[in-house]
Amino acid sequence: MLLFDRFTLTAKPSHFVLLDWGAGRVTTIRDFLFAGYAVEAIDWSRL
User: Which of 13, 24, 33, 40 is least surrounded by Cβ atoms within 10 Å, i.e. has the fewest?
Assistant: First the structure.
């Protein structure tokens, strides 16, 4: 899940969250809010 800062006018996400699913429910949540280096390294696109 890509998250954008509504107070800046950039098209780039401010951070992202990875959700893992299993048996119809979320099993793991990995939040990269404080890992700016991770946003720099991802290859992303809007759907």
Answer: 24
Enclosing H/E stretch for 37: helix 36-41
Tokens at 38, concatenated = 């991770």
What sign does the CA torsion over 29, 35, 36, 39 have?
negative
Assessment of whether the complete model's pTM goes beyond 0.70: no
The alpha carbon of 44 is separated from its chain's Cα centroid by a whole number of angstroms, namely: 9
Q: For residue range 2-31, what is the model confidence (pLDDT) as tens digits? A: 888 888 877 788 889 999 999 999 999 999
